[in-house]
Amino acid sequence: RTRTKEFTALTRSLNRMASQFRQDIGELKQAQRVQSEFIGNVSHEVKNPIFAVFGYLEALASDTLPAEQRKRYAQKGLANLHRLNNLFSDLIEIAKLEYREDMVRPETFDLQELIEEIGEMLEPKAVDKGLELSFENPSVMVYADRNRIRQVLTNLIDNAISYTDEGSVRCRMRRHLNQARVEVVDTGRGIGAEHLDRIFERFYRVDTARSRKMGGTGLGLAITKQILEAHGTTPHVESTKGRGTRFWFELPLEGSDEADSLVPEAEF
Ligand code: ADP
């Protein structure tokens, strides 16, 4: 009887191992799928502007091109080079974050000052579009990687301005338990419910052509998510199509338990 028991126990643990193994293989396959999809996307995104630049330069090299067209082609060639440049910067960012997923260089800083700094930088773009850009920020000391959080907020506010045609973009901050909660709210075109789950994926855009035209790489929110996850937090979004969008995230306040769990690591 002892033997039967032993045998049953052994069978059970073998079964457990087999099912764990199946799960691991499944996850590995999924990771491989995501990876090869990413590589496919990258080559597509890179090839398009390169071919466009070839095309414009070849046309420009011909003697017969009227002066008026020459200028237009040169501008289009430049716009494509800008796109490539943005794409490379974002890809390098992703690679860095990927390899050193949990590397953040936290310090104590005043979030209000950072938000004001970003506001000054993005104000001209908002003014250009006739949007009201406002900030309601008390002084709050947080413990996080200042440069990375600058990237996150710049992405969110810049997107809010890009995808809003009239009304306002507001950045608000308040204390919430041990955290500072930051939100970026716009009165823009909003995001349909069917897209909301996917906008943090690499290269996912609601309207690809429009986003590209505005210089978007489709990587901004993926980078935002990666940075926040490296801080042990995550971005949230709520949106109503045609009405506007609200992104928010939380950061540990200086001296909180959450801050203590963010250990400074080696440099990026
Ligand atoms: P992109 O470079 O295209 O802006 P992001 O990763 O920053 O890439 O954003 C992904 C997509 O999410 C955008 O293409 C856009 O469709 C949508 N999106 C992001 N922010 C907003 C917003 N504030 N309002 C409406 N749509 C947004």
Automatic annotation (TrEMBL):
Alphabetized UniProt keyword annotations: Kinase, Membrane, Phosphoprotein, Transferase, Transmembrane, Transmembrane helix, Two-component regulatory system
Main localization, broad class: membrane
GO MF annotations in UniProt: phosphorelay sensor kinase activity
UniProt subcellular location: Membrane
Catalysed transformations (reactions): ATP + protein L-histidine = ADP + protein N-phospho-L-histidine
EC numbers: 2.7.13.3
CC annotations in GO: membrane
Name the UniProt record assigns to this protein: histidine kinase
Protein species of origin: Rubricoccus marinus
